[in-house]
Amino acid sequence: MSSSPQPRSATLSVEVGGQVLPVRVRVSPRAVRLTLRYIPRDNCLTVTAPPGVTARFIRGFVSDHADWIGRRLTTAPGRVPFLPGHRIPVAGQDRLITHDPQGRRGITLTETALILTGPVEKPENRVRDYLTRLARQEITACCQSLSPLAEGRVRRITVRDTRSRWGSCSTLGDLSFSWRLVMAPPPVLRYVVAHELAHLAEMNHSPRFWAEVARLMPDHAVPRDWLKRHGSSLHLYG
């Protein structure tokens, strides 16, 4: 393969069925061949490539898979807006977004619904803000529950809308989490918190790290598997 510079993802795109899709390229020293994925939440393609692959070779690889891409575009689930009449998961349970114009402005969460009350302006922003606050509350409570067991001190907790990772931990003890975890079943949120707290002791993914995760949350295997299988779907909401 050519030793020319690696392509920048922003410069690559492909047209399929009249739709132009951006192509993000991730170079991995561990990759032995090109792999292609479609990311519905971003409506883009990602290519994982070994070092040394040229942009021209990647364009040809993507073009050769046009039929596969077309099928994925047809079958991929669409985005679900935070608007009345749509269902979204909260704590792993589907809730119907509804609007009750009576009463003071606010949001009520029930077993089956997320109810916007009062005048509705920019409902999508209101729902997103509510879920972010709820996520911060649940994540903070979970950290307070597990952190006494962790081998390290939590300095600060932040909640963001991250796309590349569900959580992160700095060497200073700063933890960051995706607010979208509040839509997942509670054990999944708890697993991600345990995962990041384990990094206070081991800033890696070594066997010792996973032993620390297991110590903090012995039953972490099932929620970890759920996140691998279903986590990407959480980015389709809002």
UniProtKB/TrEMBL annotation:
Gene3D superfamilies: Metalloproteases ('zincins'), catalytic domain (3.30.2010.10). Pfam families: YgjP-like. Residues 39-230 form the YgjP-like metallopeptidase domain. It comes from the Bacteria. CDD domains: M48_yhfN_like. This is YgjP-like metallopeptidase domain-containing protein. It comes from Novispirillum itersonii (Aquaspirillum itersonii).
